[in-house]
Write a structure and sequence with these properties.
Order of helices and strands: HHHHHHHHHHHEEEEH
Largest sheet: 2 strands, antiparallel
Oligomer: single chain
Shape: globular
Helix content: 55-70%
Length: 335
């Protein structure tokens, strides 16, 4: 690792920060990094830095390689706007999933591990590196930095766009990472939080309030998908139990915010485009347009809130979070 850092500086002017090593910049000619080198270097650094630890739970300095991974992502290029058929198709499927009402049937599928998005794995030159976690780790680093800036009241909502873009690329390549859906949900939750705290004037307008509700609906859908993917695993490892608790708590928190004022269940309202049929006063069937309806009853929302928090508490009671049963490296789930 120590030998690699000077090479990264000399060739590409990449700097890292570490307690044990401080790079000493000197006069060199910076080279541009090609996509092939970026993919290889990114995959290698992932294994070197995190080894058997899930990056989402990594306790070390998350900013050590942030500049390096930012440059690697930049060198790879804009994957999200690719015109490849499978990328375009997967992008449509994810967008379609996030643009649907939250119903009791959808929740049942999530808790049974049967909630799916019909996406396929693009087998191109980027697949192996993305599957290894380049965009996943880049998103974690950016989200960590956002949280740090948020505590100092210096964060901007526009910073979340970069994270959403990167973590969506991870999803586009069908990595099957439940953590990616959780991170995407966190981004939408932060958008909702920022709007409610700093731009509360939006609540005075029905159209603007619907925009907040849309982001909130997407956050809940992301958490439900993350839960579904978690429940498809045969064994709950220590790492998975910790992340499961995080997802359940985030879901319960978002549901609570959505249920009470000022949102007042707005994210559960849905307006169907198709006209409804009703009987007229003359007992004739006629078409009519309907206002938005609640797709989930108040009782079911309350029950889901209680279920989310009770399951999170039960994980603590079962001592799963302190268990040493870590059966696999996190990378082995995506290879």
């Amino acid at each position: 690792y120590k030998e690699l850092r000077p090479i990264m500086w000399c060739k590409y002017h990449f700097t890292t920060t570490s307690d044990s090593f401080i790079s000493k910049p000197h006069e060199t000619r910076e080279r541009s990094m090609g996509r092939t080198v970026a993919l290889t270097l990114g995959s290698y650094l992932l294994k070197l830095q995190y080894q058997h630890t899930n990056p989402l739970l990594y306790n070390g300095n998350k900013n050590v390689l942030k500049q390096v991974f930012d440059n690697i992502v930049e060198a790879i290029g804009d994957v999200a706007t690719s015109e490849k058929y499978l990328i375009t198709r997967n992008h449509y499927r994810i967008k379609e999933f996030l643009n649907q009402p939250i119903t009791i049937a959808l929740i049942k599928k999530s808790l049974a591990g049967n909630l799916k998005v019909d996406i396929s794995s693009p087998r191109d030159e980027l697949h192996e590196a993305i599957n290894a976690g380049i965009y996943y780790v880049s998103s974690i680093q950016a989200l960590h930095q956002y949280n740090q800036r948020k505590k100092l009241m210096q964060a901007r909502p526009s910073e979340l766009d970069y994270i959403i873009k990167n973590i969506t690329i991870d999803l586009l390549y069908n990595t099957g990472r439940f953590e990616s859906w959780y991170i995407l949900g966190q981004c939408y939750s932060y958008i909702v939080e920022d709007d409610l705290i700093w731009t509360s004037d939006k609540l005075a307008s029905k159209e603007k309030k619907n925009t907040i509700a849309e982001a909130q609906r997407k956050a809940i859908l992301c958490y439900l998908m993350s839960l579904s993917l978690l429940y498809t695993n045969d064994k709950i490892t220590q790492d998975n139990a910790i992340i499961l608790k995080m997802v359940l708590e985030s879901l319960g928190k978002e549901l609570t915010i959505s249920y009470y004022k000022p949102m007042s269940k707005a994210c559960f309202e849905w307006k169907y485009n198709d006209p409804a049929l009703k009987l007229s006063d003359n007992l004739e069937v006629e078409k009519t347009s309907i206002d938005s309806i609640l797709t989930l009853s108040s009782f079911n929302i309350q029950q889901l809130i209680l279920l989310s928090f009770s399951k999170a508490v039960k994980l603590d009671d079962d001592n799963l979070l302190n268990d040493d049963r870590v059966t696999k490296s996190w990378m082995s789930y995506y290879n």
